[in-house]
């Protein structure tokens, strides 16, 4: 049984975010079923300047840690801005998105979610 998996995040495939309206946004699945995870998945997102992950929702919760940059968090009470070192919790089925259209810096964050059978 493999209990430890170490890999540089840049070796994980970078894919465009597959969500209608997403622009200049990529995701890398860092930990998932391919690394032996059974409960949680960890993803790394980048939204380039001028980019967007539009408002959307789904049944799984998210735990997010912002690594760099800042972006407007869509769906929050006043479309608050999240920045480096902020933590974001997105409850199940809560509409959310990230707008980096007015920034000159890439917005980077780690997102942990429950591992779904389809992941």
Can you describe this structure?
The protein is an all-beta fold and 119 residues long. The protein has one domain: Jelly Rolls (Sandwich). The chain is built from no helices and nine strands. Strands 1, 2, 3, 4, 5, 6, 7, 8 and 9 form a nine-stranded antiparallel beta sheet that branches. Strand 2 and strand 3 form a beta hairpin. The relative contact order is 0.26. The model has no long low-confidence stretch (mean pLDDT 93).
Largest pleated sheet: 9 strands, antiparallel
CATH homologous superfamily title = Jelly Rolls
Alpha-carbon Rg, integer:
14 Å
Distance between the termini: 21 Å
Structural class: mainly beta
CATH topology: Jelly Rolls
Instruction: Show unreliable segments.
Output: none
List keywords for this structure.
9 strands; nine-stranded antiparallel β-sheet; 119 residues; 0% helix; mainly beta; Jelly Rolls
What is the topology?
Layout: E1 15-16, E2 23-31, E3 40-56, E4 62-68, E5 70-74, E6 81-83, E7 87-90, E8 96-100, E9 107-114
What is the gist of this entry?
This protein is mainly β. Helix content is 0%, strand content 50%.
């Amino acid at each position: 049984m493999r209990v430890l998996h170490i890999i540089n995040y840049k070796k994980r495939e970078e894919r465009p975010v597959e969500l209608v309206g997403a622009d200049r946004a990529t995701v890398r699945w860092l930990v998932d079923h391919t690394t032996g995870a059974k409960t949680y998945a960890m993803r790394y997102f980048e939204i380039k300047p001028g980019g967007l992950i539009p408002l959307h929702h789904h049944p799984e919760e998210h735990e997010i840690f912002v690594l760099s940059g800042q972006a407007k968090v869509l769906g929050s009470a006043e479309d608050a801005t999240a920045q480096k070192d902020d933590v974001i919790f997105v409850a199940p089925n809560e509409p959310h998105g990230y707008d980096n259209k007015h920034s000159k810096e890439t917005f980077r964050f780690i997102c942990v979610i429950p591992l779904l059978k389809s992941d």
